Fold each of these.
Amino acid sequence: MQKPGQLSIGDLGAELKRAGGGVTVKSQAEIDLMLDAGRIVGLTLRKLRGIVAPGMKTKELDVVAEREIRALGGKPAFKGYRGFPASICISVNDQIVHGIPGEKVIKAGDLVSLDLGAIVGGFHGDSAVTVEVGEVPDELRRLLETGEASLWAGIAKVRTGNRIGDISHAIEEEILRRGKYGIVREYVGHGIGRALHEDPQVPNFGPAGRGLLLRPGMALAIEPMVNLGGDATRVLKDDWTVVTADGKPSVHFEHTCIVTDGEPIITTKV
Ligand code: MG
Ligand code: MG
């Protein structure tokens, strides 16, 4: 949910510093709040993926998302974030991230990316999933599998003693192992906690063994974005929606994770 056109890999760090961000280590009480927020995000996404169907307008999904988040005791994290007008980002086909729900009608064969966040007691959860509507061709099915597998490859490296670069590299390696895909470079994963976006940035590519050393209690949103075509992106005139420059489809998978000495806690998994 970085504001496109204003926040790229390069300037997200500066933005975070201005906002008083930085790498934070969560207490057990804070982790408990993040588990609550994550659970609300996970349950809401599960509900939405169960109802996405041809003929629905994307704004109808936003209404359900906001109602569900609030009914479960959370606050929609995206609504009003840097002026974003809805509770969920819905990005269809060549839209990568940050699509604004509206009059767009979902069709059979679409890839629909659902990305949402919730806040409980001041702490955030953030997760995304791309779903296919009805049948999709094999190359899109493989794109979906690649995006999801790359998320899990990254999550497998979220562990005390590893570095951010280990996560980035595992994601990239998993994607490239599966085909010639475009890995989005301008939008990245991020630290998360009291703020939706905290340090550090978590790119979806790059060398292993570099970057911040992970410690227990750090929280990271891991979120690969994978394109069927090239990696270039552009932002639509609405100043939010990020699309592939070549018009080819894209997928996005995200979970919020907390570093431990063993397996990470995945707050948004239900
Ligand atoms: Mg997200
Ligand atoms: Mg995120």
Amino acid sequence: MNIDFPFQQPSLYGYKLNELKSILSPAFRAKQIYHWLYHRYENDAMRMDNISKTMQNYIREHFALSQIYPIRVEHSIDGSKKYLFETYDGHCFESVLIQMRDKKLGHKGEVVESEKWTMCLSSQIGCKVGCAFCFTAKGGFVRNLHASEIVEQVVIMKKDNQMAPHKRVNIVYMGMGEPLDNIENVTRAIEILSESEGLSISARRQTISTSGIAPKIKQLGKLNLGVQLAISLHAVDDKLRSQLIPMNKAYNISDILTEVRAFPIDTRKKVMFEYLMIKGVNDDLKSAKKLLQLLNGIKAKVNLILFNPHEGSTFKRPEMNDVKAFADFLIKRGLLCTIRESRGIDISAACGQLREKVKAENVSCETLT
Ligand code: SAH
Ligand code: SF4
């Protein structure tokens, strides 16, 4: 077990059920504690009232529980909520809860409203990759999030929104950070979140988005967790991609696609290719044509993302007509393509923006608590 906590005792949110069983005796205690953590959202051992006082004290002495604290929540008119968390060592990062409403036909032909919840989680505080268009990149890299800090983002958002423990949510690792640069903690979090005695969010409902660290895609594939893969492609030639994503100089488009082809994918699923559209940079039909060629033979779907402008950036949001023409081109040729709705556009939507906004207000993380 490799749980590294430089400043604190390990958090209970960082353990798989079997690991907890081997640490606590008798083993059934682990199940009870899992129940408190993930079904009752209890984060104080002294309130876990079906376990002995001795065990409560043991937990208090040897483990931490909460390590992250929501210090600001912004509500969007579309139902999304953006959370700014502060860590136990005084850093800030963000997560987003996205609500999508849909209308479907029921068994009797009646219109039934359905809702879908997605949680967009951070995997690091800052990021080392340094993409030219990304707000997170501007703040540099601080540290990896522990698995427990990743798991706790979900627990806190579920509790705050009074969601039943097994209410279906999708997880996307598309907040701050490059998840494959923190692969051990992210994959541990995926496994903890999927524990059936816990939140039971199967790996199939969790998507790792990566800027394309080819050897780590291979490593992830070998683990065969059943997790979904999203590749932030954003450009169809290496020259432009290296300008947008400097890491492309180390692992280019061909290296990435080689690993994607070898990645174990559920027969009913596809690899998502994210394509960030920037006005006058990569939003033309020539790029769409090249994209189609590149993805030939891969079980792929494309998600077009509209560049989200932020202060200091010279890039511009593309025209909707160009985005639609790009999407139509792909769809007409049989490639599944969607346009990402910018959820929470009114609430500092692009990752890293809420953190910067709070900094700009000259309020330190500490003073907001
Ligand atoms: N590091 C990972 C996951 C976090 S970023 C990755 O790069 O895939 C999640 C997504 O947000 C990526 O597709 C990224 O390219 C995109 N993104 C970053 N900055 C953006 C911006 N200003 N506007 C729109 N999307 C952005
Ligand atoms: Fe890091 Fe992703 Fe932002 Fe690039 S887009 S800097 S990989 S968080």
